[in-house]
Amino acid sequence: MKSRALSKMLVVVGMSVFAVGAAVAAHHGAEPAEKAPNLEKRAAEGKAAKAYLEKKKEYMSKKMEKMAAWHLSMVDKDGDGKISVQEHETFMNEHFKKMDANADGFVDKEEMMKGAHVHHEKYKKDHQEAHRGDHSKK
Asked: Distance between CA 118 and CA 135 in Å, rounded?
């Protein structure tokens, strides 16, 4: 008698777990197999998306590496490949003075925007000059 009641209870629990799983899957947009005839197409699209994301990640990693090298070249005055506290403070003080157009000891929003624009243009120019040789090698 006890084993029969236990069996019924296990069936009820199993059905409940299945129902909860189906509800969760439906909530997250999963479709029953009969409603998803293009599984191969979806798998191919997933592989293509994954490949695209891997290429994008590699591109961004290279771009960040180039930006870090550029910033290092701007700040590392002794050329040892590291930025000391003194080099950082000197760079920041020089940068602040350049941004503080009216020399009032403060950088307001207008000065900051202008400084950001100048900084961005300098980076673009330096980046283009640094990579002119790269394109001629190909």
From this structure: 26
| 120 falls within a domain | yes
Contact 96, 88 (CB under 8 A): no
- Give me 54's structure tokens: 């891997």
What is the extent of the structural domain holding 73?
38-137
pLDDT tens column, 26-84: 655 555 555 555 777 777 888 888 888 999 999 999 989 988 888 888 889 999 999 99
CB atoms within 10 A of CB 33: 8
96, 111 contact by CB (below 8 A) = no
Write down the pTM of the prediction.
0.46
Integer Cα distance of 40 and 80 in angstroms: 54
16 in any annotated domain: no
